[in-house]
């Protein structure tokens, strides 16, 4: 059969991500027949745990699943724990033997997947030691999945990348951007390139502006220490937001191979108009949440959070106007915004089309609106096309209507999760939905200019209330161009 076989080694096996996302994803792959019996997972972390403890953690992470034909004990028996000291070379040699033994037992053809799901300051040491102790050369394939944050600016990302590249080739490295695993983000390409309807209009002749929003309701919760040194710009814009933008704006690839798609995405990032310090203050809006009332409960301001500097200058909200300087997009503003503690949890892309050259439906009996194509990424998954049609009455008045498609709404349980898709892709050797170093480098270089400009000037924070849509300046950004944010959810 074609189901992938591998020993998966998860560094950071007791962490939040592993428990919340990775074990459930492995379970779902297994349940859906995307993973055969030929797999084993080695959980690696510092803490001394027994195999039994570890397997219990794994079972706990999948307790919400109830599939009568799956024996959870049998599933958990594929998981093994290996307490580990990253500095101790002897531990690597022992791990190597352990991998080989499990390879033998589960017949995984010598394939190894290393998953770095831990604090990034260990990535370099870990990669170097894996190589020096011979773990990166095996009978089958060896791949590395690496979690964000990938550096905190271009120089640190480059340093990290150089360290990893000492041990792994670029085509062995799978850098996770979990937005690329989302069903509707992957759908962008299909909607654009499998329809005759959109692509001919997908340019500055017919599109007036594009809006990409990813808003969250939660604050930074327990992640204050990490977040206070990152902020929304580095946490969301550098990766998820720019990735969505690249997929929306890229030219059609000559085929659907990872190399061709990546090369088109890279071209978009290269065409992003670089910002000067003055531009940053004009085209980028930063925000930080204040306290606010949500469902009768008063939630504290960002600065009052755990691990956060009480005088913090960190952005929890970013809105921006980007320009892509190429033939297709010259003159079309691409707006994006993302923030925490906003009104709703929602990720959406709105493509607004230009008005017709002449409007016949202008009297007060008519309500004609711009055509919008809305891609709903979450929580709803689908697309909506906003068009104008005749009102269903005796008149000839026009009125806005919506054509909507909702993705597998009846069976949410079976829609694959981002991490599940990405793990499966990696095991199949498909790197399409991972970020190549070239993309990471360009995104950081773009973002660094903004971070530097902001770093030089203290912001007037807090400037938006918890539960709102961000600071007013974010609305002004569009209003100055004669546009508005479409709140379409
Ligand atoms: C992560 C960020 O990459 O994405 C988090 O570090 C953010 O701060 C999260 O909350 C949002 O992901 P999603 O899938 O919930 O939109």
TrEMBL record:
Residues 190-486 form the Glucose-6-phosphate dehydrogenase C-terminal domain. Transmembrane segments: none annotated. NADP(+) binds at residues 46, 85-86, 148. The active site is at 240 (proton acceptor). One of its GO terms (cellular component) is cytosol. It comes from Saliterribacillus persicus. Residues 9-187 form the Glucose-6-phosphate dehydrogenase NAD-binding domain. Belongs to the glucose-6-phosphate dehydrogenase family. Pfam families: G6PD_C, G6PD_N. It catalyses: D-glucose 6-phosphate + NADP(+) = 6-phospho-D-glucono-1,5-lactone + NADPH + H(+). InterPro entries: G6P_DH, G6P_DH_AS, G6P_DH_C, G6P_DH_NAD-bd, NAD(P)-bd_dom_sf. Substrate binds at residues 178, 182, 216, 235, 340, 345. This is Glucose-6-phosphate 1-dehydrogenase. Pathway: Carbohydrate degradation; pentose phosphate pathway; D-ribulose 5-phosphate from D-glucose 6-phosphate (oxidative stage): step 1/3. Its EC number is 1.1.1.49. PANTHER family: GLUCOSE-6-PHOSPHATE 1-DEHYDROGENASE, GLUCOSE-6-PHOSPHATE 1-DEHYDROGENASE G6PD. Keywords: Carbohydrate metabolism, Glucose metabolism, NADP, Oxidoreductase. Catalyzes the oxidation of glucose 6-phosphate to 6-phosphogluconolactone. GO terms for biological process: glucose metabolic process; pentose-phosphate shunt, oxidative branch. PROSITE patterns: G6P_DEHYDROGENASE. GO terms for molecular function: glucose-6-phosphate dehydrogenase activity; NADP binding.
